[in-house]
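I am writing to request your help with a piece of structural work I have in hand. Here, with my thanks, is the record as I have it:
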Amino acid sequence: MNAIKMIHTIARYYNTSNKMTNLFIKITNEMITNCKNRIMGRGDDFDEMPDKELIWTKDPDQLIEILNSCITLCQKYKSQYDITKTKAAELPKSRHWDFDDNVIFGKFDTFIKRVKKLIEIFSTIQQFKALEKHNNLEGMPNLTESFNKKITDFKKKRHDLLDAENVKFDKDYVDLMQEIQKLDTDLQNFIDTNFSKFKNISYSLKLLKKFEAILKRDNIRNRLTNKYEAILQNYGSEIDGITKLFDEQKMSPPIIRNMPAEAGKIIWVRHLFAKLSGPIEEFPPNLINSKEMKKYIDKFNYVGKNIIIYELYFTQSWCNDIERAKACLQTTLLVMKEENNQKRIKVNFERDIQKLIREAKALDREGIGGIPESAKIILLQEDKFKNYYFELDYIKNEYERIIGKIKPIMKNLLNPHIEDIDLKLRPGMVTLTWTSMNIDGFLQNFQQSLNKLEQLILTINDIIENRIENNLKLISKVILVKLPDDGKPLSLDAFVEDQHEHIQTQAELLMSKNIEIERAVDDLLACVMNYPLDPHIHKVDVIPKAAKTIKGYYFWYLYQALLNSTQNSLNAMKNRVCGKRSVGEKNTLKPFFEVDVKLEEEIVKLDPSLEEIQKSINRAATAVLSCSKKLLRWDQLDKRNNDPTEEKESFYKIIAQDKEIVKVIL
């Protein structure tokens, strides 16, 4: 502008008002052209697109910024012109600027009016574009679709938006603004309807702030401002509702399922306070300082004070419980309790500790601060306590399972071994607590001891089942006589010879099984005796007596098996020789001995005679009983190996004297 002033002062050609006015008109036109180029973005790869369509493709935010810069340019241009004109008038010898302002700025003013209309259009486009993000609200899609249709119809008229002299645009612009005015009315009704539906004060305030940021038109913004008063009244009603709810439920508040009682009360009152204090932080500062707000603030302070006192009371009560629960960590890991008149080991993890962990976790999950450090420390060790609990419960169950595998006959013999494992378990019941540092070592040591004891019991059970009981069953089923099954009669000599051969074979079998059982019992006792026990366990008096009992127990069962075998053999021979046919039985009894009938001197004789037959049967029965002479009683294996001539005791005497055997023979 100073340069133009110098031209006007010095240049002879521009010494008239008409020529200076023409110069200003050219400058103004050039400014308008530059503004249009800036708006259209020429030189930014848009040259191939027609000017009429180009402006609609630009981002509304950037376009509005450019349009505002055009208005600023016009204002600066006029401002500098007025300043220079004033300075020229103040200089006495300077030429005065008596140019026609309307001629110089008229075209620019017309262009700026068009720019302001474009700002109005694109601001409205920007507003409804932002509203499309809230299409989840009922009725919003209809409004945005209606606006988009009106803008599309306006675009179809293909106006040159930057042609300020186009009068038809002004007429269509007025029609468009009238349509948008109707949409504004619909939008106001939409806001009124939706705000009447929303019961959540905080949500209503947040939505209202969003609408304030989006909606720029004055009539709508005034309506939004009035909404604060309605929300404030709703907030007052909500304060009354919270007050009533607090008074009714504070003695027995509703607690979430599976939530600890103390933590549930604290969380309930925290949520109640958040519901009370949340909206007041969303109100704008000018409304908070208003007179209408003062009565609600007084209510808020009164209710909030009572809620905070309630929370502090239960928080302090919970903190006191923490100290009591911490003392439970000093209890032993295991404890002996009586159930159904039986003493059983239980994991001594107090419920107070579990309750403390659950409450601390619940409060921490809700983001409630102020949890005492002691509670945080226990909460951080939750996984450790859980692992210890499960490991202790596992070894307790393993202990009961392994002890349960002991056969009743072996319990007295294994009492020192049970005392040994109980001694290794004792630290967990006497010295170790949940805060001890050597729990892992205790668990590992006891688990190893359990594994060793289980292996011993499995070995014992294997010997009993496979080497003792199976052989006893086999012995009891042995038949010492050989009876013909083909129905062919035998001579007396053949019968006796067959019995001797068969009894000899079966005797050898019984001898081997007798030795196997005796050695199995010795091996069983050796396993028990050789098992390493703690030096504090006194096994000198206990184990020898129990071992003698075990050996006597299985010796008696061996005797019973031999007795059963002998009795079954004699009964089998008796039933075959003296067999009787049952009533109604059709099968005929097959002959057993070959007997000839002779007539000598008018006397009928049997050959062999009945006396000879009886003697043969008696010889066979004697052979069956004599089988037990070869079966030595136990604890004579050394005698058998060292001095074969030394007399050894056998089972013959006790079997032959048995009442059942005597009854069968007689």
